[in-house]
Amino acid sequence: MSPAADTVVGLLVLIGAGFVLVGSWGLVRLPSVMERLHAPTKATTLGVGALLLASMIDGRTRYGNWTAHELLVTLFLFVTAPVAANMIAKVHLHRTRTVAGGEADGIAGPPPRPDDEGDWATFAEPRRNCPGTPPDP
Amino acid sequence: MIALALPLALGCVGVAMLLTLWRLVRGPSLADRIVALDTMVVDAIALIVLIGMTSGTDSGFEAALLLAMVGFVGTVAYCKFILRGDIVE
């Protein structure tokens, strides 16, 4: 294995592990749910992406076998992370609205409501006066 | 450099997993616990990849791929259950 490839793989592994650690540290350290959602969904996903890239280059240069497994895992993680984060944010909004006492707000305070009559579409109840639903009697 | 970086990275990801476990146990809200579980799955994928690089085998990648898929489905199932009280309607 050439020194250049060795350096590149080593750096990618260190960067990836650093991002994974920062993501989990943010999950522990940040003050509210909405802020805690940021750290793992962005930093950790990026870190795992770097680790998988390192693994791909490592397999190619050290063992000479080219595999697309890692690309598949990376693609799947990058596609699913935003969807999972969106679902979790919906759970938080839903719980803020329906559970008595609610949950702690972050530094930025509670999120603004979408408009005067509407509400967040967390499936708790149909939105009032939105297109496609019958008007209230 | 890889020989130096791999043990360090394994340590970092292990510590990250412990921090995530702390958040999973501590809560305090349901959304926190779902985030922590989702993050633990991603950390587990990172560990599998690092162990695969250390041992020089690629037999762990099927497990990593399965974890990536099942972890996402699990997260969405938890969220749907809390939002609707049901998973498949």
* Secondary-structure element pattern of chain B, one letter each: HHH
- Oligomeric organization of the protein chains: heterodimer
End-to-end gap of chain B: 53 Å
Total count of strands of chain B? 0
| Class inferred from helices and paired strands of chain B | mainly alpha
Q: The CATH topology of chain B is what?
A: Helix Hairpins
Query: Which geometry of chain A do the CA atoms define?
Result: elongated
Summed up, the helix count of chain B is 3
> Which class best fits the helix and strand makeup of chain A?
mainly alpha
Which spans of chain A have pLDDT < 50 for at least 5 consecutive residues? none
Q: Report the average pLDDT across residues of chain B.
A: 89
The count of helical stretches of chain A stands at 3
Largest sheet of chain A: none
Uncertain stretches of chain B: none
What does this protein structure show overall?
Chain A: Residues 100-137 are annotated as: Disordered. Chain A: It comes from Sphingomonas abaci. Chain A: Keywords: Membrane, Transmembrane, Transmembrane helix. The complex is a heterodimer of chains A (137) and B (89). Chain A has three helices and no strands. Chain A has helices at 3-29, 33-63, 69-98. Chain A is elongated and about 65 Å long. The model of chain B has no long low-confidence stretch (mean pLDDT 89). The longest helix of chain B is centred in the middle third of the chain and has 26 residues, at 30-55. With 89 residues, chain B is mostly helical. In chain B, helix 2 runs antiparallel to helix 3. Chains A and B meet through helix 1, helix 2 and helix 3 of A and helix 1, helix 2 and helix 3 of B.
List keywords for this structure.
heterodimer; A: 3 helices; elongated; B: 89 residues; Helix Hairpins; 3 helices; 84% helix
